[in-house]
Specification:
Length: 256
């Protein structure tokens, strides 16, 4: 029987304490990337797969996200990272392929991915300032890599959840403002040292969700692509708008 990834995350948080030094990995794309990875994998394995797929230059824009200081259970809260959940779950029909790994052993090298895509695809680099919420973007078809570095989450459970929501809204706004509908998001994380503190000593009890049908798979493919809108001034300076933190929440795509 399949468990939704939400259920798997909760199960991992409450039972599988052996993987305290792991963190999740997510990827979604409006292009078809044929990838399949188990829910527990080495970072080197994931990186080899991602580099192999992105070396083919399937997108116009590549968003490389780094989110340090997290663990799988940070994403098991149904109110955490709702926009990310919608992308990975297949709710967004523009997304044609997704990949999520619950427990990654080691760290995926985001800089290596940036280096490979830059070399193979001739993509220009654009680093987004997550602190100010603004960046300059060129409205042209040239390939680009958008680097988004989020700070490590606080140690307090409540503050962690709040900050993760803020980061999720920020990333969603970037996607809405892209000048192209052809993009791939590589969402890397590193494990939280605070996870071993008293805030995480006792496992939480989570409600399992079975709302996804068994026809959904770990790697989903969709056909229809949409066009993202953007708002920028004459100089190409884009400021991310305020967005609601709460929407209709969906759970992650179930594992295969």
């Amino acid at each position: 029987m399949r468990l939704p990834l939400f259920g798997a995350l909760a199960l991992s948080a409450g039972i599988c304490n052996a993987f305290r030094d792991t963190s999740p990995f997510f990827m979604f794309s409006t292009s078809e990337l044929l990838t399949s990875v188990p829910q527990i994998a080495l970072a080197s394995t994931i990186q080899d797969i991602i580099v192999s797929q992105l070396s083919k230059c399937p997108s116009d824009t590549y968003i490389v996200v780094t989110q340090p200081g997290v663990h799988a259970e940070d994403y098991s809260d149904r109110y955490a990272a709702s926009h990310l959940r919608r992308k990975v779950s297949g709710e967004d029909e523009r997304i044609r392929s997704t990949m999520s790994v619950m427990d990654v052993l080691g760290d995926v090298d985001a800089e290596k991915i940036v280096e490979v895509v830059g070399d193979k695809c001739g993509a220009a680099l654009l680093r987004v300032d997550a602190a100010t919420g603004s960046f300059t973007i060129a409205d042209d078809p040239k390939p680009r890599i958008v680097i988004v570095d989020f700070p490590s989450l606080p140690s307090s459970r409540t503050e962690r959840a709040s900050k993760l929501k803020d980061n999720d809204v920020f990333l969603s706004s970037i996607l809405d403002l892209l000048p192209t509908s052809k993009y791939t998001v590589i969402y890397t994380t590193t494990a939280s040292s605070a996870h071993k503190s008293s805030d995480f000593a006792e496992p939480e009890v989570y409600e399992m969700d079975t709302s996804f049908s068994s026809s959904q798979s770990h790697m989903g493919i969709k056909r229809d692509l949409g066009v993202h809108s953007k708002r920028a001034d004459d100089n190409g300076n884009v400021t991310l708008p305020d967005a609601p933190l709460f929407e209709k929440y969906q759970y992650f795509t179930p594992g295969s």
